[in-house]
Predict the structure of Heme ABC transporter ATP-binding protein.
Amino acid sequence: MSALPPLLHCRQLSLTRGGRLILDGLELTLHGGSLTALLGPNGAGKSSLLKCLTGELDHEGETRLFGRKRQEWDGTELAHRVGVLPQSSSLSFPFLCEEVVAMGRLPHSEPGSRRDEIVRAAMAHAGVEHLANRLYPGLSGGERQRVQFARVLAQIWQAPDADAPPRLLLLDEPTSALDLKYQHQLLTLARALTSRNTAVLVVLHDLNLAARYADRLLMLERGRLMADGPPARVLTPELVTRLYDYPAQVIPHPETGLPMVV
């Protein structure tokens, strides 16, 4: 357990919608320097949990961000430090991709030249600089997702030499529309961000991607936390078989030694 204060801490987080209990008294703590994957079968409450953390859904319990209750934060101030990538975007206006990424800088006050510099850097890191002058609605689903990831990077961008405050990055199924190459590219970059006092929480369906890139796995079932720990401890054949109703085998990856579900 890190000696530093947590960047996110939830106590007794519960969510009820339509008379149905979606999340049941969850306790969650995230520290900087780690990538945590949130796993579980469909309907387990993964996306609902992220929406509670972002304030999109009202819920019971307490959520603290960077040591303060979420409701005590000014929205603009919080936007400097918390980036959120939803499952999909409904943006349909004919914006250029570079304009979409520039939306990530709206919470910031800075010269236009500095904004443009950050936008270019974020697009380069996300591998979408070649899409800068393409119209966003004409992109494929995977291209849109990568442009949106660049927007989030631009939003929480910090200069490499800055004495920057901690950040939180919440990603909801960011690899769902991506082919294999870009799945690995996105998660590699997300993991690299953790080296600068950033906590990343990512919802994933691919257990093997989670095992490869996450320091910690959280396994949900029907709104309850069923397992919490490193991949080697969480990805057991018994747990995977029970939660996913699939006769799973877990073997060491031949190159990394990490658990691999087959």
